[in-house]
Structures are given as structure tokens and as C-alpha cells.
């Protein structure tokens, strides 16, 4: 899998939205390390955008708890926490099955085209974790939009970035984990495309079970490291 634009994906993004996505990707991929402090001017250099788009992006990222803006000091990237990840998964367990169920009933032709393209991506030869993380971002955005509920889109976006970062940071066997995740996401998308709301809910609950299992396994690894 290589990162690419999915057919039908929103392309007319504002500069602030583009800056948001670039900074989010750097946080998820840990190019901006956890617990690090970075200046606004440095983020302008890294993203290629001016002060206003970067500040607007930082405001959105702060609302999603992906950064903390410290006046006169800079921008703090939050630490990675198992406890916080489990709390986010509690919320995702409610939001994502709901979004998938609504999408199964409400998706229009444009939504279905985007979802079909994403399903093809997930069923392809998946190797690159960075590209996979970007595909997942597009999956959640597209399913949320297909639910045609803007409040739900915003709520899901607020817990997605840091949750993806946790998975990325603790990834050990990339090919195995990506294959497992792709299969579960693929089942959910296929159910949405079939108009099967209950099936979509079941698939997203199974995905959440996997993510909780993955998260708790990191506690076991940390425990062995201390032993």
C-alpha cells in the first residue's frame, strides 16, 4: 500500500485544514516526538504554511488534545499513555459502530465510491505502516461523512489521531497487525456498502475488541520489561 489520494476524497481543503493534516501526520508518525516542545515558527517551516493557517490548525489540534499550546513557550506534544488510549477506545466503541450503522443507511453514490476505493486499498498488498495509518484516517473520515452527521464526524476526529499514534508507536509485527486490522476494517466497509447496518456495527465492535487487546498487550510487555 502506498499513500495516495482516494477517488472522491475531499480535495478543496483550506490551508488550515492542510496544515492540520500535516501536523497530525507528524504527531501520529512521531516525527514530532511525544512530550516534545516545538515552536510555532518551526511548525511553519515543517508544513510550509504561514502563521495564520498554522495557528488555526493548532487550535483544532488542541481541541482534539493532540497538542497543548503553552503561551510564550511553544507547542507541547502529549505523552503516550495506555490509560488515555483505553479511555479513547471506550468512546470509539460507542461512536464508530453508530457511524457505520448510519452510513449503511445514508451513504450516497459519492460516499460509496470513496468507500469502495478504500476497501480496495485495504484488500491490497499492505506493507507500509505510514501509508496504512493514512488510509485509516481516510476510512474514518469517509465513514463519518457517509453517516451525514457533522457532529459525529467531529466527535470521531477528536479521538482518532492520538489513538492511531498509540498503535503506530507500539507496532511490533507490522505485516501481521496491518493484515488483521485491514480485515476488520474491510468487513465494516463491506457491510456499509451492502447496506447492512447491524453487520457494520458488529464489525466495528470486533475492531474495537482487537484494539483493546492490542493496547492491553502493551501493558504486559511493559510489565515484562520491568521484571
From TrEMBL:
Residues 13-80 form the HTH gntR-type domain. Pfam families: FCD, GntR. Gene3D superfamilies: GntR ligand-binding domain-like, Winged helix-like DNA-binding domain superfamily/Winged helix DNA-binding domain. One of its GO terms (molecular function) is DNA binding. The keyword Phosphoprotein does not apply. Keywords: DNA-binding, Transcription, Transcription regulation. InterPro entries: GntR_C (IPR011711), TF_FadR/GntR_C (IPR008920), Tscrpt_reg_HTH_GntR (IPR000524), WH-like_DNA-bd_sf (IPR036388), WH_DNA-bd_sf (IPR036390). The keyword DNA-binding applies. It comes from the Bacteria. PANTHER family: GLUCONATE OPERON TRANSCRIPTIONAL REPRESSOR, TRANSCRIPTIONAL REGULATOR, GNTR FAMILY. This is GntR family transcriptional regulator. It comes from Brachybacterium endophyticum.
Amino acid at each position: 500500500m502506498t499513500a495516495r489520494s482516494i477517488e472522491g476524497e475531499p480535495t478543496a481543503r483550506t490551508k488550515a485544514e492542510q496544515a492540520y493534516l500535516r501536523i497530525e501526520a507528524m504527531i501520529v508518525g512521531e516525527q514530532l516526538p511525544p512530550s516534545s516542545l516545538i515552536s510555532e515558527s518551526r511548525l511553519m517551516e515543517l508544513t510550509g504554511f504561514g502563521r495564520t493557517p498554522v495557528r488555526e490548525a493548532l487550535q483544532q489540534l488542541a481541541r482534539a488534545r493532540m497538542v497543548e499550546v503553552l503561551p510564550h513557550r511553544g507547542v507541547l506534544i502529549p505523552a503516550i499513555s495506555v490509560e488515555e488510549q483505553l479511555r479513547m477506545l471506550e468512546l470509539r466503541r460507542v461512536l464508530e459502530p453508530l457511524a457505520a450503522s448510519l452510513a449503511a443507511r445514508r451513504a450516497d453514490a459519492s460516499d460509496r465510491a470513496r468507500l469502495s476505493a478504500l476497501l480496495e486499498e485495504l484488500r491490497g498488498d499492505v506493507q507500509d505502516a505510514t501509508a496504512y495509518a493514512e488510509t485509516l484516517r481516510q476510512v474514518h473520515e469517509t465513514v463519518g461523512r457517509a453517516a451525514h452527521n457533522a457532529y459525529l464526524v467531529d466527535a470521531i476526529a477528536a479521538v482518532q489521531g492520538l489513538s492511531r499514534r498509540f498503535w503506530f508507536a507500539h507496532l511490533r509485527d507490522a505485516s501481521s497487525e496491518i493484515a488483521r486490522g485491514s480485515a476488520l476494517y474491510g468487513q465494516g466497509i463491506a457491510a456499509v456498502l451492502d447496506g447492512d447496518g447491524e453487520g457494520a456495527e458488529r464489525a466495528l465492535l470486533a475492531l474495537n475488541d482487537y484494539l483493546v487487546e492490542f493496547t492491553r498487550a502493551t501493558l504486559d510487555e511493559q510489565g515484562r520489561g520491568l521484571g
